[in-house]
Amino acid sequence: MVDTFLASTLRLTMPTPDPNYSYNDIAKMIDHSLLNPALTVPELEAGCMLARTYNSASVCILPYYVAHCAELLAGSTVVVSTTLGFPHGGHKTSVKLFEAEQAIHDGARELDSVINISKARSGDWRYVRSEIEALTTFIHGAGAKIKVIFENAYHDNAAKIRLCEICGEIGVDWVKTSTGYAATGATLEDLRLMRKHSPEAVQVKAAGGIRTLDALLEVRAIGVTRVGATRTAEMLDDCRARLGLPALAAL
Length: 251
Prior knowledge:
Blueprint: H1 2-13, H2 23-27, E1 30-34, H3 41-54, E2 58-61, H4 66-73, E3 79-84, H5 93-106, E4 110-114, H6 117-121, H7 125-141, E5 145-149, H8 157-170, E6 174-176, H9 188-196, E7 203-207, H10 213-222, E8 226-229, H11 232-242
Parallel strand pairs: 1-2, 1-8, 2-3, 3-4, 4-5, 5-6, 6-7, 7-8
């Protein structure tokens, strides 16, 4: 009788697995962000190992650390990613291209490039298109992928739509909301707009403000396929608990 009662109680308190996603589905949505300029070398190394342990999609690392990050992630399925023109986008196109060349040489396979925000706000779409096209052509030619960061905090909806159209015509891999360093980051309104105005082949990445599993699941429902996050461990621990999986620390 007591055993039956305990078994019934355990069934009621154990998390019920959600058939709509697996642990891997969620882990492979996360670009573990290590872009805070104050991070120390030991913190960068620990962050890379955390991403490896949790099997995230990528580590988005400070550019100078890309080569060592690639060494730490060797043999795993976690991709090395880094940034171009970060965080303000005001670098000349030639500088962003050099950054891309160096990053790919060092082992990066995904590059998050900030548009020239000033040119976009000035309505110089020819310049904006030319730069995105040059970067996409080079990066794709090297077998890598590009995420184009709009920094939506500085644009109205018409500009965001125009950027989606340009990126769709060029064939970038992702359009991305923000750097995480502007006044605002990813919003549901912006993500819906970006998904609506981007071709199906162009994915959407949310960055800035995705701090919980519930927030990740909310943007996933919109069609977002990647999020930039610093709270990777907390989100994925929560995911494992909800799916009834053992904590990674216990394995």
